[in-house]
Design a protein that fits this description.
Elements: E1 3-8, E2 18-25, H1 31-36, E3 43-47, E4 54-58, E5 62-67, E6 72-78, H2 82-96
Antiparallel strand pairs: 1-2, 2-6, 3-4, 4-5, 5-6
């Protein structure tokens, strides 16, 4: 899956040390891509029975969330891990999603 755009999110939680980025992909995020997120690490919550299926992958250093069927995904990271996680996530998207 190719990343078309990465934008710093308007919903920053800098007081808590979190920084978020909104990613736009070249195609929609479906069930297969959501299930593949497990390999990135963390705990996956996938509410597939909702009218707009929601997913969230959470670890102590990051959180990824989105809605199935859209081309968007949000990644939130702690500032001290920001560059490492951004690079790892973008490589994961290119190679594994």
């Amino acid at each position: 899956m190719n990343i078309e755009q990465r934008v710093e999110s308007r919903e920053q939680c800098t007081e808590a040390g979190w920084y978020a980025y909104d990613y736009l992909f070249d195609r929609t995020v479906g069930r297969t891509e959501i299930e593949r997120l497990r390999a990135f690490g963390g705990d996956l919550l996938y509410l597939s029975s909702l009218r707009e299926p929601f997913y969230k992958l959470e670890d102590s250093r990051f959180m990824i969330r989105g809605i199935e069927g859209t081309r968007e995904m949000r990644l939130a990271v702690y500032r001290e891990n920001e560059q490492e996680i951004l690079e790892k996530f973008e490589k994961f998207c290119r190679d594994c999603l």
